[in-house]
User: Fold this.
Amino acid sequence: MEKSDGISREDFLKGVGAGLGALAIGGIMSGTALAAPADARKTIVAITNGGGNPNRAILALLMALNAPGAVHVWMTLEGAELAVKAKSEKIDSPVFKKFGTAAELIRKLKDKGATFGVCPPCAEYAGAVGSDKYDFIEKQGADWLMKSIQDAAVAWM
Assistant:
């Protein structure tokens, strides 16, 4: 049996998910709110789904498109696939087909003034690098997310 120095995709996703889950549980247990009141002027939509679950990916983009105030879309885990131009053009939902592909919704969000971020390791894993990544999507880690959610309404999809 050949030894691999790398980590499998499944182990990577489990690790990232467990880490983010632990942060969320820690926030809840400490009594600190992880989302601001409904009248917050900033909304963060964290998208964890991509081509493997296009219904959830498109629903998250539609939620972002209809959110009030300033909107930031943060992509992580399989959601990082949305940051890849070629992949987002192929992601469409059978349930929400009339709203278009992920790429079309991302363009609408950008035109509406939304900002975008993607988890750096997830971006690399999904292939959202160089010219394959939308140039307006910034690499932003969990440190950015934890700092930013303090004064925002957050939807985690």
Q: What stands out?
A: The beta strands are 42-47, 70-75, 115-118, 137-139, 153-156. The chain has one domain: 35-156. The two ends are 39 Å apart (CA to CA).
